[in-house]
Every structure is written in C-alpha cells, then in structure tokens.
Amino acid sequence: MANVTRKPSKAKSRSRRAANQRIKQSLNLIECPNCHTKKLPHKVCGNCGHYGGKDILNLSKD
Ligand SMILES: [Zn+2]
Q1: Distance CA 19, CA 22 (A)
Q2: What is the mean pLDDT of residues 16-26?
Q3: Would you state the pLDDT for residue 61?
Q4: 5, 16 Cβ separation under 8 angstroms
Q5: How many angstroms is it from 57 CA to the middle of ligand 1?
Q6: For position 60, what pLDDT does the model report?
Q7: Terminal-to-terminal C-alpha distance of the chain
Q8: 45, 39 in Cβ contact below 8 A?
Q9: How far is the CA of 34 from the centre of ligand 1 (A)?
C-alpha cells in the first residue's frame, strides 16, 4: 500500500489552493433570460427551470 512519505510543503499546498480558487472564479455564469439569476450556460436554470425559452422542469406550477 502506498504510504505518505513527506509532508507537502506550504508552497505546494498553497499553490494547489490558489489553483482551485482560480477555477471557481473562472466559472462562466450567464444570466437566465427568464428570471435573471446566474446560471451555467447550456444548462436548465435551477431557479425557474427554463431553457431555450421553454419551461423544462415545470417548477412554477406548484
Ligand atoms: Zn431562470
């Protein structure tokens, strides 16, 4: 079984954390044309369930 041989240096931990932060910041969010909240492009809006001008998830009927 693989063992940990050495404690990762501060530089290694910090650079990994910084890279993850950069990924999160670079997430490309667009505004939903229906409810104007931020959503991922090419995905159904999680807030109102609309995509491409249609109500896909029918969240507003309840
Ligand atoms: Zn929406």
Answers
A1: 5
A2: 92
A3: 57
A4: no
A5: 11
A6: 57
A7: 53
A8: yes
A9: 5
